[in-house]
Task: inverse folding
């Protein structure tokens, strides 16, 4: 593991590659966070990057000082963090996996440009399908695996906490539960390890007068899985929720929080899974991923996790994607 990735960089400089709905919303959220003093926006449409940089800059007097500007790949060399949101948008009726070929092609033009600049920071992948693109980014960039992170199921987990908080009429921040596996249709709600401030979820549900556990859990998990489709159907794109998730990951990295987040990273034998990036809880800090956290899973959840990994691996194999 490369332990000095941020020591060779400007820790307060961030780069966003891709200035569509998600990229622009992430930049706006990050600007408000006060984490960085410099933000570079890069897009295939330079005018779009310039417009977003100008628009967001006009809010700086209401936030912390930060220099925001449109740039090019020569501006990335000393950044501590590069976020890649560039890619085709998910359309109504499409799954995230439907975007595979288009977005891998885009990554094959972006990642080599990063590699040429001997980038020493952390690469955060946000574009979908995020788990597959994280695997692709690791292989194309040849960066140490701890320094390539996918946003994974951080947003899905927030959606789960939101739904459980509403269901139980309790602050969602007191809910501790994870969505794991693919950020997509094969994702798994890890009910075995779910709790509310240390109280097992089933017991807490009973305290709140709920007894139909299986029915309620199935509905909540389905609502979480389908929430992106619902948003896309209603407003054509999702971007505010993921922008907050990206800001949260940035906080964990730049503040070296050692926070446990369900990010996407390469698996090496955990739960018997090898050679594919999946979203699993991991300690995240200034060096990227420190270690995975082996949360409690029952046999059914582990079986579903294997199925999720196989789904992703099959997509890579079926498309004969060479990286």
Result:
């Amino acid at each position: 593991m490369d332990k000095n990735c941020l020591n060779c960089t400007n820790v307060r400089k961030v780069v966003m590659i891709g200035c569509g709905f998600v990229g622009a919303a992430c930049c706006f959220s990050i600007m408000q966070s006060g984490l960085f003093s410099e933000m570079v926006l890069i897009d295939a449409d330079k005018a779009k990057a310039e417009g977003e940089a100008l628009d967001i800059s006009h809010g700086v007097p209401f936030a912390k000082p930060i220099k925001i500007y449109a740039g090019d790949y020569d501006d990335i060399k000393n950044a501590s963090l590069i976020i890649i949101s560039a890619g085709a948008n998910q359309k109504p009726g499409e799954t995230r996996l439907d975007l595979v070929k288009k977005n891998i092609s885009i990554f094959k033009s972006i990642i080599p440009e990063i590699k040429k600049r001997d980038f020493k920071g952390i690469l955060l992948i946000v574009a979908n399908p995020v788990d597959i693109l994280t695997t692709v980014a690791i292989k194309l960039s040849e960066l140490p695996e701890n320094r390539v992170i996918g946003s994974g199921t951080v947003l899905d987990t927030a959606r789960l906490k939101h739904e459980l908080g509403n269901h139980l009429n309790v602050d969602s921040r007191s809910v501790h539960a994870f969505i794991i596996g693919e950020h997509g249709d094969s994702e798994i709600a890890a009910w075995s390890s779910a709790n509310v401030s240390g109280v097992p979820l089933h017991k807490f549900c009973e305290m709140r007068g709920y007894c139909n556990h299986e029915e309620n859990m199935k509905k909540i998990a389905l609502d979480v899985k389908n929430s992106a489709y619902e948003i896309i159907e209603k407003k054509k794109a999702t971007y505010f929720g993921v922008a907050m998730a990206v800001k949260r990951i940035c906080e964990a990295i730049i503040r070296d929080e050692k926070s446990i987040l369900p990010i996407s990273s390469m698996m090496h034998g955990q739960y018997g899974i090898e050679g594919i990036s999946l979203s699993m809880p991991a300690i995240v800090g200034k060096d990227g991923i420190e270690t995975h956290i082996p949360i409690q899973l029952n046999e059914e959840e582990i079986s579903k996790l294997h199925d999720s990994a196989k789904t992703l691996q099959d997509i890579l194999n079926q498309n004969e994607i060479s990286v």
